[in-house]
Design brief:
By secondary structure, this protein is an alpha/beta fold. Helix content is 33%, strand content 14%.
Length: 415
């Protein structure tokens, strides 16, 4: 029998744990035990399983909301939430131009149009002011992305949504445990979406959650992720068009073992981020990510803003130096704005139909501003951004190595 070993981290002086492999992930006997129980039971589908329903209840309790559905990915979570808004063809969802395509492709799949709001260049988050400029009579919902684990300023956004009678979907894929004025992100809007992808705060490889306080939305999303099927109903039927976004019991087993560790992981990320901030904040030209009592950051990535007197060459120099010690970096993060990806630029969707951009679906809609010159905040934000990988397997020596590497890349050996 092959013995399965857990990853016990040792940190050489020139090595940074990577969340793309075992060095930066915390799997152990709990995950193995849960997987073994599922395999021995032989029920791998969540419809008849025991683990995924337990996981849904546990995550709902962690969020302090009544309803949670576990799904197969973070993209599935967002698609399920977007479908629950029930848009007509050509209706609009306002989103950030700095976001994963998992928040944009589902909009198109529902026959709707993404409308992009500019961002604050310091936080790279959308604001109520930038969103307000993009609302039209076709706006159905706002998708709020808490980028890198930093909460958006939610009170003004929620007030704006209420004024216009539109829904708010929180993309909290990077925001497990982040709080805004004492409330966890993902629980402030109408629906919250979370991701369990490999590099998130906790993981089962792929997977996700949708959470809500609204029983009607919860019912729709529960059906939608199971092909519109009323599983468990007295007379079930496929009530509407849906997809199979069910989480498997195997995914659920790993996630169930990870969930009790989540608060510890978040606390450690925050503690070590504070140490790096203390080391870097004295460097002229580096702006560290904001974090305060009303808006707690959970550091999916540690992102710094590089400004004068430092230059773009300094940003690249820091990135290359960090990569030499094994740290994951993303200079300028996505580099492209969301609408600059090929499938949007070239309308590579739904054959050659032009849907959903057809004239007859676009009446009364907002202007399509798919041009980076219209997004000065987003362009400025990306141009000065360096994202540094972050995970719970870091310790003080890793953080000090990162800080020293940055300092050396800029000013020579300061030790």
């Amino acid at each position: 029998m092959t013995q399965i070993r857990t990853n016990i981290l040792t940190t050489p002086i020139n090595f940074v744990p990577n969340d793309a492999d075992a060095s930066g992930r915390s799997f152990g006997e709990d995950e193995i035990r849960m997987l073994r129980e599922v395999l021995e039971r032989g029920v791998l589908i969540s419809q008849y399983g025991k683990v995924v329903p337990r996981l849904e209840n546990a995550f709902a309790a962690w969020c302090d909301v009544p309803h949670c559905t576990a799904v197969s990915s973070g993209t599935a979570a967002l698609h399920t939430a977007i479908a629950a808004v029930d848009p007509q063809p050509g209706d609009e969802f306002i989103s950030s131009p700095i976001t994963d395509m998992g928040a944009i492709m589902p909009v198109f799949y529902q026959g709707a149009i993404p409308i992009f709001a500019d961002v604050d260049p310091i936080t790279c988050n959308v604001t109520a002011e930038t969103i307000a400029a993009r609302i039209s009579s076709r706006t159905k919902a706002i998708i709020v992305t808490h980028l890198f684990g930093l909460p958006c300023d939610m009170d003004p956004i929620m007030a704006l949504a209420k004024k216009h009678g539109i829904m708010v979907i929180e993309d909290a894929a990077q925001g497990f445990g982040a709080t805004y004025k004492g409330r966890k992100v993902g629980t402030i809007g109408d629906v919250g979406c979370f991701s369990l992808q490999q590099g998130k705060h906790i993981t089962c490889g792929e997977g996700g959650f949708v959470v809500t306080r609204d029983a009607e939305l919860a019912r729709f999303m529960k059906l939608y992720h199971d092909k519109g099927w009323g599983f468990g109903d007295a007379q079930p039927d496929h009530e509407f068009l849906g997809l199979n976004y069910r989480m498997t019991e195997l995914q659920g087993a790993v996630a169930m073992a990870q969930l009790p560790k989540l608060d510890e992981f978040v606390a450690k990320r925050r503690e070590l981020a504070a140490r790096l901030t203390q080391r870097l904040s004295r460097i002229d030209g580096i702006i560290c990510p904001p974090d305060h009592e009303d808006c707690t950051h959970v550091y999916w990535r540690y992102s710094i803003r590089v400004v004068e007197p430092l230059t773009a060459a300094d940003l690249d120099r820091m990135s290359n130096a960090l990569r030499s010690i094994g740290a994951r970096t993303a200079p300028r993060y996505t580099q492209k704005l969301a609408f600059e990806y090929g499938f949007i630029k070239n309308r590579k969707m739904f054959g050659n139909s032009g849907f959903p951009f057809n004239a007859h679906t676009r009446s009364r809609g907002a202007e399509l501003m798919y041009d980076r010159s219209r997004y000065p905040g987003a362009v400025n934000g990306l141009d000065h951004l360096l994202c540094i990988g972050w995970n719970e397997r870091y310790d003080e020596s890793v953080v000090d190595l990162i800080a020293t590497t940055i300092l050396r890349s800029l000013k020579g050996d300061l030790q």
